[in-house]
Amino acid sequence: MEVINDDSCSWINDLSLRTNTQILSSNLDCEWLIIGAGYTGLSAARKLGQLHPNQKILLVDAQLAGEGASSRNSGYLVDTTLNDGFTSNKELENYKKKADIYKLGIEAVKRFIKEYQVDCDWNECGKYFASSKEEDKKILENFSETLSKLGFKHNLLSNKDLKKRLGTNFYNIALHTKGGILLHPGKLVRAMIDTLPENVNLYENSTLLNWKKINDKVICHFKEGSIKTKKIIFATNGFLKSLGIKSNYNFPITLTASMTRSLTDEEFESIGKPKEWGILPVRPMGATIRMTKDRKILIRNTAEVHNPFKMSKTDLKKRSIKQKIGIKKRFPQLPDNIIQSSWSGIVSRSRNSSQIFEKIQENIYVAGCYNGSGIGVGTLFGEQIAIKASNQHSKEIETIEARKKPTWLPPQPFLDLGVRARLIYERVRARSEI
Ligand SMILES: Cc1cc2nc3c(=O)[nH]c(=O)nc-3n(C[C@H](O)[C@H](O)[C@H](O)COP(=O)(O)OP(=O)(O)OC[C@H]3O[C@@H](n4cnc5c(N)ncnc54)[C@H](O)[C@@H]3O)c2cc1C
Predict the structure, then answer these.
(1) φ, ψ for residue 182 (rounded to 5)?
(2) Residue of the CA atom closest to atom 21 of ligand 1
(3) In angstroms, how far is CA 63 from the centroid of its own chain?
(4) Which of 25, 73, 247, 258 could form a disulfide with 323 if both were Cys (CB 3.0 to 4.6 A apart)?
(5) Are 385 and 44 in contact (CB under 8 A)?
(6) CB 176, CB 155: distance < 8 Å
(7) Pocket lining for ligand 1, CB < 6 angstroms
(8) Which atom of ligand 1 is found nearest the CA of 42?
């Protein structure tokens, strides 16, 4: 199966067209092969390039590099999460381990943008966890206690403050964490492509069809060529399962989002000219909604089990209508037809919201499964899996490996049934927040 995406994502369309791309069309040998060129694969390639300047490193993606989830996300570089999976974060110790990884993720992205002077609309404005339901105050108060114990700066806000800050009357209660960062995901990943080391060769629109290990080499077959490699890193995130990797520990989920055009001066004034902000829902299936620095509204309010390889135009349209309703609910004064683009993207989930970072066989490594925190964690895990695969050590690896590991998933059809049932339950619980 080939990865086929819509071409309508605003983040991608903000960028200049890439011209110097190459397809894999011969049979090659290399020391290092990375499959998947999103944040994870690009960071792994950058680190390997630095660690092994004289070795041959190949990076291959089924579509154009960076045009998977890495430029289709909502652009929250998170310091903390409230609902990042199907289990709630009850235990403080585990929550701290998770937050330690997010912190390292933020540092990894910060280091990259500083070193390469990247402009990715970086804004340290924090983020809100918000709800229209007064009764969700209890959830936020409990969360606030956890954050206080761990030293995260945050504050609780009510409807009046929120209306002023966000330009909508929709939310009645929120918790603002100071440490969250908003950015342009497409600009970030494009910078990672543009700054790849010289000894990394990138092949795009080249889908890995199958792979096998023969003696001490891994043989990979693509549509129009093959690669024989000594070591391989799988960085295909939502497509790990389709390549038979950690199949009993992760599964793909399809998300869709829409973005409006920039609001006119008049429209912007009608909502009180708010500064850039980003909201995550208190109830897991509620909407993520963001006001960008160029006055566009982004909304993501679907998450579902769907064919990860393609979403039809009709299916995307149906989801886009939900997003239009979501915007209208929050900003009734804005015109109906301001959505500029709608798109889908694939993420990888595990049962207990934990990430994958490991050697799965001799010379075969994998990093992925970040739920909604792949900007920072993917950047971090990419670098660190490259270090691990080079048989080197780091403090970061110790922190990553101290986390809870992903737990085992039931086989099909029980998995799909279970996930679908859970999503329906969460959707009903969050129906006012979509
Ligand atoms: C709508 C949406 C909103 C999100 N919001 C946020 C957010 O606000 N903050 C956040 O941190 N995260 C968010 N995420 C998640 C985040 O985008 C991902 O966790 C992150 O992009 C993962 O990066 P990655 O490099 O591991 O995977 P990807 O970016 O998915 O890259 C994997 C690559 O592997 C390639 N590939 C797959 N199969 C093959 C194959 N057979 N052969 C060759 N190549 C292959 C794909 O083409 C793809 O380019 C969101 C995701 C979506 C879809």
Answers:
(1) -105, 140
(2) 70
(3) 17
(4) 258
(5) yes
(6) yes
(7) 3, 35-41, 60-63, 68-70, 72-76, 78, 207-208, 235-239, 243, 255, 257, 300, 345, 347, 368, 370, 372-375, 378
(8) 25
pLDDT of amino acid 269: 97
Cβ atoms 71, 12 nearer than 8 A: yes
Query: b or e along 250-259 (b: 16 or more beta carbons within 10 Å of the residue's beta carbon)?
Result: bbbbbbbbbb
Confidence (pTM): 0.97
Mean pLDDT by 10 residues, the chain (434 residues): 88 95 98 98 98 98 97 97 60 90 98 98 98 95 93 96 96 97 98 98 97 96 96 98 95 97 98 97 96 98 94 97 98 96 96 95 97 95 98 98 93 89 90 93
Instruction: Determine how many CB atoms are found less than 10 A away from the CB of residue 398.
Output: 9
Q: Residue 303 in contact with residue 254, Cβ under 8 Å?
A: yes
Minimal-distance CA residue to ligand 1 atom 9: 76
Query: 297: which residues sit within 8 A by CB, 6+ positions away?
Result: 259, 260, 263, 289, 290, 291, 327, 331, 338
